[in-house]
Amino acid sequence: MKKSFLYYLLFSLVFTLAACQDKDDQEADFSKFREIAYNYLDDSTQETIVGNWKKAFVRKNGNGNYEVLFNTTYDALLGPIVVEIDGKTRDVIRIYPRD
């Protein structure tokens, strides 16, 4: 009984540590995608970004690419800036049109 409890405890600990590592790795990747997207924008566009660009929303879409969303002073009129980046090559694919 004690042996099975120890195995369960050890398994839980390893699983928890692995999950934390995955989250840290994902956040490091997201930071890289934020930086790529931000540096792709011209200076005048960068100046319109509201808040810290290093905390921009990042999501992975269904085809393995990443989208970085920057809120700007013109969001009410045009919507946010969304930059799509290739997940493998890390090249900017496009900036979505704003309304």
From TrEMBL:
PROSITE patterns (alphabetical): PROKAR_LIPOPROTEIN
Keywords: Signal
Signal peptide: 1-18
Protein's UniProt name: Peptidase propeptide and YPEB domain-containing protein
